[in-house]
Specification:
The chain starts with a helix and ends with a helix. The model has no long low-confidence stretch (mean pLDDT about 80). Helix 6 packs antiparallel against helix 8. By secondary structure, it is mainly α. It is elongated and about 85 Å long. The protein has 8 helices and no strands.
Length: about 180
């Protein structure tokens, strides 16, 4: 029921059930408490389209209407330089930082959970392919080092400079392969 009401409010505006005499100027629909100020200013980080299927974060219950956003942006208080717009933009930044922090915490918890679960193993076929690719990477790495050393010798680079000129990037790649 609330979902249907929210959809109607988004389509028709928050004044859809108000009598004609009591209705305010439709160009000021954006002032209604049920309208999301972040959305009308540009971006609501808790919009269901932004969050996707993240279960642990509650979706913004307020109205997200493009029509109301356009009315706000055409209003003098919706101009880029207005004080109200600046306040709304600051709120957006604060909410984005809050969302990022919550998602970082969620990611860390999930990584720890997955690492702690001893039952999570790659299927044998995938593990075999990964090991094969690691072997190919080691072979390519040693070939690149050999070709690099050969090129330095052909250019008559003194041995004291050869140590500095080669291997730096390859050593880092080799270390990352060993850790993986």
């Amino acid at each position: 029921m609330n979902e249907a009401r929210a959809m109607l409010d988004a389509l028709m505006g928050p004044q859809r059930n108000v009598e004609k005499k009591a209705k305010k100027d439709p160009s000021e629909d954006w002032k209604d408490e049920s309208v999301c100020k972040n959305f009308i200013a540009g971006f609501c980080p808790f919009d269901k389209l932004v969050l996707g299927g993240i279960r642990s974060i509650k979706v913004c219950p307020k109205i997200h209407s493009e029509l109301i956003r356009d009315r706000f942006l055409n209003h003098p208080e919706g101009a880029d330089a207005s004080e109200l717009r600046s306040r709304y933009d600051d709120d957006i930044i604060q909410h984005c930082e809050e969302l990022i922090a919550r998602l970082d915490d969620y990611s860390k918890r999930e990584i720890d959970r997955i690492r702690a679960d001893p039952h999570l193993e790659l299927p044998s076929e995938v593990a075999r392919q990964v090991e094969q690719l690691r072997g190919e990477a080691r072979d390519l790495l040693s070939r690149a080092e050999f070709l690099d050393k050969e090129a330095l010798e052909e250019r008559n680079v003194p041995p004291s400079l050869r140590a500095n000129a080669s291997g730096g990037g390859y050593k880092m790649m080799s270390l990352s392969l060993q850790r993986a």
